Amino acid sequence: MLGTLLQRIRRFLMWFAIGSVALVLLFRWVPPPGTALMVERKLQSWADGQPIDLQRSWQPWDRLPADLKVAVIAGEDQKFPLHWGFDLPAIRAAFSHNERGGSLRGASTLSQQVAKNLFLWSGRSYLRKGLEAWFTVLLEVLWPKQRILEVYLNSAEWDDGVFGAEAAARHHFNVSAGSLTRQQASLLAAVLPSPREWSASRPSPYVLRRAAWIRQQMSQLGGDDYLATLGQARRPPWAD
């Protein structure tokens, strides 16, 4: 019986690996129709008896504003072109901070956030973190950095039921994503750590300060020219 069980587990793991690789490869070229987080939010709204209409409109890379691309990198993951999915110094710093107590600090890269939002559920279990690491490796190996950022900007949550840059721009500023100003882009990036509690259109003093800091970081990174580094990003050694 034990031998049969182990055989079934090996078979399951093999088919899971094949299926997940195929799915990640598909989404390298095909826009994901939705995300696991969107499904989770919909189910939560039904359970709470307050159904919500999910807002999302996919925009290809060329129609996403450069200011928003740079703002999100500046605010969320400034080492994005340099790491291979995991910012190890930030992870160690967050671990040390959390060990000392107080508020929990995360260290998720944009790649990890895409892996979690696209394929997985919310939570902090070891199983979910392990799956997040697996999908993060697949994204880094099978997608270019530009694609990771493109999917992130089309999948990030910016309010209850508001997903992606296009829906966020219309929801908060009543403009299309391509018409966002530099200040509006920085405000959207500023609320990403807590988009259901903070508002880009009605920013608190803290959000305004954070947006100003993001604009400063955007300039220090080199503005729009910084996006060229995505095409020169180092590939993981296991991808060659």
What share of residues is helical?
Answer: 55-70%
Strand share of the residues?
A: under 5%
Total strands: 2
| Biggest sheet strand line-up | 1-2
Segments where pLDDT lies below 50 for 5+ residues? none
Number of helices: 10
Keywords, please?
single chain, 240 residues, mainly alpha, Penicillin binding protein transpeptidase fold, 2 domains, 2 strands, 2% strand
Description of the molecule:
A hairpin with a 2-residue loop joins β1 (157-159) and β2. The chain has a two-stranded antiparallel sheet with strand order 1-2. It is globular, with a radius of gyration of 19 Å. It folds into 2 domains: 1-30; 32-239, Penicillin binding protein transpeptidase fold (Orthogonal Bundle), CATH 1.10.3810.10. It is mainly α. It has helices at residues 2-29, 36-47, 66-76, 88-99, 110-119, 126-142, 145-155, 165-173, 182-190, 205-221, and strands spanning 157-159, 162-163. It has 10 helices and 2 strands.
Kindly summarize this structure in a few lines.
Helix content is 57%, strand content 2%. It is mainly alpha-helical and 240 residues long. The protein folds into two domains: 1-30; 32-239, Biosynthetic peptidoglycan transglycosylase-like (Penicillin binding protein transpeptidase fold).
SSE arrangement:
Layout: H1 2-29, H2 36-47, H3 66-76, H4 88-99, H5 110-119, H6 126-142, H7 145-155, E1 157-159, E2 162-163, H8 165-173, H9 182-190, H10 205-221
Helix pairs in contact: 1-6, 3-9, 3-10, 5-6, 5-7, 9-10
